[in-house]
Automatic annotation (TrEMBL):
It comes from the Eukaryota. Residues 43-52 have a biased composition (Acidic residues). This is Transcription factor 25. Residues 89-98, 197-206 have a biased composition (Basic residues). Pfam families: Tcf25. The lineage of its organism: Eukaryota, Viridiplantae, Streptophyta, Embryophyta, Tracheophyta. Residues 1-113, 186-206 are annotated as: Disordered. GO terms for cellular component: RQC complex. InterPro entries: TCF25/Rqc1 (IPR006994). It comes from Anisodus acutangulus. Residues 9-19, 53-72, 99-110 have a biased composition (Basic and acidic residues).
Length: 626
């Protein structure tokens, strides 16, 4: 209820009551204007409390009217009717207050008021409302900042997302300075205005979002997507996206264009439905493979903007009380787009923004369908969030098992190395309860020795000492024999090899490896013990992480030849089909079971070419007959 509506209600109630003595002296001094403010929503709860709140609101109204009259007396004249109405209200309410003070039940009403406040955990002397726990049925946009008391009670601090770090511009200003970023933005805005020429003039009133900042040349949100609440269980609300009828029609057109590899059809869909998610993902992948990284990032950001605009009012993922299951097919685009946005932030050097996005992905689905656990350590090291990484390894999922993964085994030792350097530089006392960085590195080498040989080749490490180290029988192999572990090691080396290009870390790794070799020469039982731990942790004979592509964790950007781009088409999840590499004969295997007329009509399309495939097939048949 707004203050204006509350005053209107109070005014109507005052007019319904009979006016009392009008001839009293008008020389009575007004009551002080510092009356205690009370929550206006409580007027609807209790009739007695409503009367008391009404009285104090009228007193405040009286004092504000008199103050405004004093300020305006030099220039304007107030009508006597306004003073009469105000006087009537004030005299009547003052009399009523005096009567209530003399009544014996006034204290009981005050006690009941205090008891109700204690039950609601509301302070009577403050204008703020502080709830013990958030109500999932109510939406409070002020809690989206992720830093309030409500957020701390909902989620563990280890996954608390700070929205100010989600904005890449804030991190760039911190790194390069505001002047550099502002000059770059001016040049970018000039280019964007050129792109928007010929379209609708004037700036768009875009929604304010948390994940991305919409650009001026983007179209206005069309509301083609929405979200619904599926269920609430144990205080966690489960949501899913919903398509409108217009969006469903655009999706059908997208599937038709995808079936015939019609990229122009995808572009045509975006002209009529500028926020069709699958088409934007396809366009982003096209720009990425053609080398236009900025255009690809712009399409990804626009897609993320559309997905956030569709959020339900109760969907507050930064608070940790909502989830969006990846198993639901309609929710998958958000995960793939968020992960693509993480990689874009990494390419821009905004590693703290990438770290916060990784936290958000883990909050949305704890099953980690995108493999965030295998890159979050890299972003925390690049963002210099060493203390957070140690806390995460200890508190995530209430166990201490993440150190068994190869990426965490090595990253935690690097993390402890930098923490020790900071403590030594500040003359701080080293925590004796935690293992030293050297011990952690030796432990990582004993648990995952095959990582070392791959790092030497990938970084590369060209010191002569590495030649003798990798020739040792313990470090000579780069395979473990376990598909899951080998796949995770490949992901770690591809993602984090840049960390090991620093000379001080190379010396740190070399000294630890030499120490391990010396230990094994004295006693070989440690190697057998760590081998048993490795087999116990990764016991599956199948690759449990085959859905994670090593290329998704790589810094290198894939490209396609210009001849292949005309046949370019991607899956909505962002995966390029295998037939994209061989566009000339990618339909040959389908000809045997298809209608001849349909094949004839399809062959007339400029981007379809069956010639080389048929020629080769006929040549093989002639060779077999011969």
């Amino acid at each position: 209820m707004s203050v204006r509506l509350m005053k209107k209600i109070l005014k109507e109630q005052a007019e319904l009551q009979h006016s009392e003595d009008e001839d009293e002296s008008e020389s009575e001094s007004p009551p002080p204007s510092s009356a205690t403010f009370r929550n206006p929503f409580d007027l609807l709860d209790d009739e007695d409390d409503g009367v008391d709140q009404e009285d104090k609101a009228d007193i405040n109204d009286r004092s504000s009217i008199e103050k405004s009259d004093e300020k305006q007396s030099s220039t304007t004249k107030t009508t006597p009717e306004a003073f009469v109405l105000s006087d009537r209200k004030f005299k009547k309410k003052k009399k009523k207050n005096n009567k209530e003070k003399s009544q014996p039940g006034a204290k009981d009403n005050e006690n009941s008021w205090n008891e109700s406040l204690e039950q609601l955990s509301i302070k009577d002397d403050s204008s703020h409302l502080e709830h013990v726990a958030p109500d999932p049925g109510k939406y409070n946009p002020t809690n989206l900042n992720g830093r309030g008391k409500v957020v701390k009670q909902c989620i563990s601090s280890v996954l608390q997302v700070d929205p100010k770090f989600l904005n890449a511009e804030n991190e760039l200003r911190r790194i390069f300075g505001s002047k550099v970023v502002n000059s770059f933005e001016k040049g970018h805005q000039t280019g964007s205005s050129r792109q928007s020429r010929g379209g609708r003039r004037g700036s768009q009133n875009h929604r304010k979002t948390v994940l991305v900042c919409p650009l001026e040349h983007w179209p206005r949100w069309d509301g083609s997507l929405s979200m619904e609440l599926v269920e609430t269980r144990d205080g966690i609300s489960d949501f899913r996206y919903v398509h409108t009828s217009s969006y469903s029609q655009a999706r059908k057109a997208f599937e038709s264009a995808k079936a015939i590899h019609d990229f122009n059809g995808i572009v045509n869909i975006l002209l009529h439905h500028p926020y069709h998610v699958d088409s934007l993902i396809t366009l982003a992948e096209y720009y990425k493979f053609s080398g236009e990284q900025q255009m690809s990032a712009d399409c990804t950001a626009r897609c993320l903007y559309a997905l956030e605009c569709a959020w339900h009012p109760m969907f507050t993922p930064l608070m940790g009380n909502c989830q969006l299951k990846f198993s639901c097919e309609i929710n998958k685009p958000l995960f793939s787009v968020l992960f693509a946005h993480v990689k874009n932030m990494d390419r821009r050097g905004c590693h703290r923004s990438a770290l916060e996005l990784c936290k958000l992905l883990l909050l949305l689905d704890s099953d980690d369908p995108m493999g965030v656990l295998f890159c979050i350590d890299y972003y925390s090291l690049r963002a210099e969030e060493y203390t957070w990484l140690e806390q995460f390894s200890e508190q995530y999922k209430s166990d201490n098992s993440v150190w068994l993964f190869p990426n965490f085994s090595y990253s935690l030792s690097v993390c402890r190395y930098y923490v020790e350097n900071e403590e030594h530089a500040k003359n701080m006392k080293v925590d004796d309860l935690k293992a030293s960085s050297t011990d952690l590195m030796k432990q990582a080498l004993m648990l995952h020795p095959s990582v070392l040989k791959k790092l030497v080749s990938k970084v590369p490490l060209k010191d002569k000492a590495w030649t003798s180290i990798i020739k040792h029988r313990f470090f000579s192999s780069d395979q473990t024999g376990t598909p899951s572990l080998d796949h995770l090691i490949n992901i770690y080396v591809e993602r984090s090899y840049l960390v090991w290009r620093l000379p001080d870390l190379q010396k740190f790794l070399r000294d630890a490896a030499l120490s391990v070799i010396e230990t094994l020469q004295n006693d070989g039982t440690d190697a057998r013990d760590w081998k048993c731990v490795r087999k116990e942790a990764f016991s599956s004979e199948k690759n449990e992480y085959s859905h994670l592509l090593v290329s998704d964790f790589s810094d290198s950007v894939p490209t396609l030849p210009p001849d292949n781009l005309q046949n370019f088409m991607v899956d909505p999840r962002g995966e390029v089909p295998n037939d994209a590499e061989q566009p000339a004969n990618h339909r040959v295997q389908d000809l045997s079971d298809r209608n001849a007329i349909a094949v004839l009509l399809e062959s007339m399309l400029p981007w379809i070419n069956y010639g080389s495939g048929h020629d080769q097939h006929d040549h093989d048949e002639q060779a077999n007959e011969g």
